[in-house]
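Customer escalation, tier 2.

The customer says the design service returned an amino acid string that "doesn't look like it belongs to this structure." They asked us to rerun it and document both sides in this ticket. The original structure tokens are below, unchanged.
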């Protein structure tokens, strides 16, 4: 969005909006004078609102990333505790599955 002056237009300013269609950006004439001033203010308020929403969304993503990191640490700790408990109870991993350890065809009791 911009205010433009024409070479032969004197001091008169004209307000244009940028419009994207199919990857191509074109300028759309809005007008001049008080109505153009109003349109420019409305466009600026809309732009500021979008920026505030974007900042709020990014802040939320940062907050969630911190919570995810804490959850990952907790999950890793629980997984380690689970593995240690099973190992101490006589289990082992066989082809990706936890199995009770056997000795001479019998399950070993601990």
């Amino acid at each position: 969005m911009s205010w433009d002056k024409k070479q032969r237009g004197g001091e008169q300013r004209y307000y244009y909006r940028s419009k994207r269609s199919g990857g191509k950006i074109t300028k759309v004439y809005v007008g001049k004078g008080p109505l153009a001033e109003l349109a420019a203010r409305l466009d600026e308020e809309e732009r500021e609102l979008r920026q505030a929403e974007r900042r709020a969304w990014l802040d939320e993503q940062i907050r969630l990333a911190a919570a995810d990191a804490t959850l990952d640490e907790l999950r890793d700790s629980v997984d380690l505790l689970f593995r240690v408990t099973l190992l101490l109870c006589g289990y082992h991993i066989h082809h990706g599955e936890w199995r009770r350890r056997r000795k001479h065809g019998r399950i070993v009791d601990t």
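Tier 2 assessment: The sequence is consistent with the input. The chain has a mean pLDDT of 88. Strands lie at 2-5, 13-21, 24-31, 91-94, 97-100, 102-103, 106-107. Sent an explanation to the customer and offered a walkthrough call.
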